[in-house]
Amino acid sequence: MSERDQEVRLRQRLSGLSRLPLLRGVRVVGESERLERQLERLQADTSDEAIWRSVELARHQDRPYTLDYVDRFIEDWVELHGDRGRSDDGALVTGLGKLAGRTVAIIGHQKGRDVKERLDRQFGMAYPEGYVKAMRVMEIAERFGFPVISLVDTPGAYPGVAAEQHGQGGAIARSQAEMARLTVPTVACIIGEGGSGGAVAIAVSDRVLMQENAIYSVITPEGCAAILWRDAGEAKKAAAAFKPDALHCLELGVIDGIVTEPEGGAQTDHDEAARRLEAALIESLEELEDLSGEELRRRRRAKFRGMGVFAPASPVQRSARSPA
Amino acid sequence: MSEARIDVQVEHRHAPPPSQTKHPNTCPKCGSHYRDDELEAALWVCGHCGHHFPMSARTRIDWYADEGSFVEEAADVRSEDPLDFFDLRPYAERLAEAELNTGLGEAAVVGQATIDGHPVELSVMDFTFMGGSMGSAVGEKFSRACDSAIERGVPLISVTSSGGARMQEGILSLMQLPKTVCAVEDLHDAHVPMITVMAHPTTAGVLASFASLGDVTIAEPGALIAFTGPRVVQQTTREKLPDDFGLAEQNLRFGHVDAIVVRADQRAHLVKLLRLFS
Question: Model's pTM, two decimal places?
Answer without folding.
Answer: 0.88
